[in-house]
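Possible regression after last week's pipeline update?

I re-ran a chain I had predicted before the update to compare outputs. Posting the input and the new output here so someone can diff against the archived version. Not blocking, just want to make sure nothing changed silently.
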Amino acid sequence: MKIKTTLTYLLLLFCAITYAQQERGITGDDNWLDYWAEFNPKTVKYGEPNYILTGSIEENMTLTKRNVYLLSGNVFVTNNATLTIEPGTIILGDVDSKATLTITSGSKIMAQGTETDPIVFTSSSSFKKAGDWGGIIVLGNAPTNKLGKGSAVGYYPSISGSDYAQTLFGGTDADANSGVFKYVRIEYAGKKTKQAKSSNALTLAAVGNKTHFENVIVSFSGANAINVVGGSFNMAKIVSYKSKGSDYSFNTGAQVNISNSLAVRSPYISGSSVARCINVLSFDKNKEAILSDVETTVVAKNMTVLTDTKDLEFDLKSGLIREAIYVGANTRFKIENSVVSGFSKAAILDENIKLNTVNLEKIQFVNSYFNKCIGNIYQGYSENNEDLENWYGNPIFQNLYSKGIHSETFIKVDGNKPDYRLRIEKIIAMRKN
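New output (post-update):
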């Protein structure tokens, strides 16, 4: 069935695009990844720990740059305490105990590094690998679409029953403040186990909009890099680098604005057929959600998502590279001024989404650049995407399509100091008719 185009809607959308149009992909007068981001952390020596963090932190505490800390087991910041971390501080996640750090609901973390002195969470192993330790879990009081409070038990590699009360999240305070993450690196976290649903590198559950996330890089996660469960907040200048799981997963009524952010995938690291750059769902199980209250809503602006591999053509033809974006039913998703480069399909819409004007107004691809994708936007795993190509390919949406190689598409894609901004002068693109 052909999708009917609503002229009034398109005219309104055109006006919005005309006023909002700007450079596509990550932006900046210079490369904001310089100085603080590290794309080859195996080569960095962080020193030996001289201070162990274990159990519960029940009073305000400051971690200082002069020490190297070892997280051992499941460490909880509780009792409305604040954990402050100085710029340049190193925290090692213990490999043997699959350590985690949890900021419980009502408590805060103030991890505010600087561009030249970032805070680093990394593996305690001399031979680091994805999933060496559990990761960081931030729990808040903001709304979700779950019935009652949720528990984060499923996001730990291992946890005792006595710690269950520390894993609860969710409430009614959309303005909840769990603290600050700024100029922070999280390396080799996200332990995947049989017991855990997925111990992700950074889990944000019911986090409120007074929490600040900016300039955070999650690299070589063993599961999802950034897992958002409900909550309402903004993120900017976030990087997921070569994760085994999805780079950005949004679920359970999350209300998130993410801007000027990056996901770099590798077909030889990705560990799951459902691992994507952006995964947007409203629920794990329909019966656990109140969809009339909160649908997951994600607005992504100036995103760049790409596949990094030596032979992109071969890997695409071999089926090693899958879709970049998945949008589930009962969700709202908008991506604009963005770049999707080097995937089998740019995006897949859930097969249960009826393709009509009402639903497609909730799923928008606007003023974006689709490069080196075998196909662009599909419903389910059908190979017939004519209707969606005609809809999103309409010039009113200002989307561009190309087949350029990455070395000519981005300023610099190799080495330890890549620059993933578009090389504007080299791009040869076209609009769909």
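Follow-up from reviewer: compared with the archived run. The two ends are 19 Å apart (CA to CA). Marking as no regression found.
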